[in-house]
């Protein structure tokens, strides 16, 4: 699957996102806890169980709603990790459908919508943390950005 995965004709950032989800490198709440960033593990969208890639992209009620947009058969929810689920999905639909699904999730949002991206990091050696956010309109124009750095966490 990996040989074909890297040949998918999708945006590099979408391919990277999918690769991170498949390899357990996606910065989910569970992964943040493993890295000693203490965050609430519950889903902000459905208040469900801990946020793993599988939970975020497959099991969450919001994710299931998003999947209903596609008229394709999904693997049963019997898998426990995202990579197993995706391999099952890939074996059912092959590359073309996978490309379409991945790109459809990454489409331009509606006019008048503001998109806000946030990120954070800890700096153990300095006993500090930093956060940042950027807000863009539906054309990608930056409306505002903010950066915070705090010593002594």
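-> sequence recovered:
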């Amino acid at each position: 699957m990996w040989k074909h995965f890297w040949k998918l004709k999708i945006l590099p950032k979408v391919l990277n996102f999918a690769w991170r989800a498949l390899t357990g490198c996606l910065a989910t709440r569970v992964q943040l806890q493993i890295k000693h960033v203490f965050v609430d593990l519950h889903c902000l969208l459905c208040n469900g169980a801990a946020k793993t890639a599988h939970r975020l992209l497959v099991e969450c009620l919001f994710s299931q709603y998003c999947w209903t947009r596609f008229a394709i058969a999904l693997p049963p929810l019997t898998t426990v990790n995202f990579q197993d689920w995706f391999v099952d999905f890939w074996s059912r639909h092959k590359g073309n459908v996978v490309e379409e699904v991945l790109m459809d999730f990454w489409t331009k949002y509606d006019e008048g919508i503001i998109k806000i991206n946030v990120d954070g990091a800890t700096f153990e050696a300095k006993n500090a943390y930093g956060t940042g956010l950027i807000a863009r309109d539906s054309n990608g124009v930056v409306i505002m950005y903010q950066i915070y750095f705090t010593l002594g966490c």
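The longest strand covers residues 142-151.
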